[in-house]
Amino acid sequence: MTTTTIRIDYSALPEGFDLSRPDAVAEVIEQALRENGIPAEASDVLSHLKIELPTAQLGAASRTLAEMRLI
């Protein structure tokens, strides 16, 4: 299975995300993707969030992330 990594800089996050709790932000994003059937893993990586998911589900993940105003 091919994996895609999406990186989102903290400065690009819209209002409403608690930047003092990056692990919680990653959990919210991961949960939203999983609720849409995308087996993703999101994590805090010092300067950005890292989201790993199957490349075959990149389109669906992009829609979810766009709805969340992350991309």
Describe what you observe in this structure.
The chain has 71 residues and is an alpha+beta fold. The chain contains two helices and three strands, in the order E-H-E-E-H. It has helices spanning 22-35, 58-67, and strands at residues 3-9, 41-45, 48-54. Strands 1-3-2 form a three-stranded antiparallel beta sheet. A hairpin with a 2-residue loop joins strand 2 and strand 3 (48-54). The longest helix has 14 residues, at 22-35. The chain is globular. The model has no long low-confidence stretch (mean pLDDT 94).
Fold topology:
Layout: E1 3-9, H1 22-35, E2 41-45, E3 48-54, H2 58-67
Antiparallel strand pairs: 1-3, 2-3
User: What can be said about the biggest beta sheet?
Assistant: 3 strands, antiparallel
What structural class is derived from the secondary structure elements? alpha+beta
Q: What is the radius of gyration?
A: 11 Å
Write down the overall geometry: globular
Mean pLDDT: 94
Q: What's the total helix number?
A: 2
Tell me the series of helices and strands, N- to C-terminal. Answer: EHEEH
Proportion of residues in extended strands: 25-35%
Helix content: 25-40%
Poorly predicted regions:
none
Number of strands: 3
Strand order in the sheet with the most strands: 1-3-2
Distance between the termini: 24 Å
In short:
The protein is an alpha+beta fold and 71 residues long.
Observed structural traits:
71 residues; alpha+beta; three-stranded antiparallel beta sheet; 2 helices; 3 strands
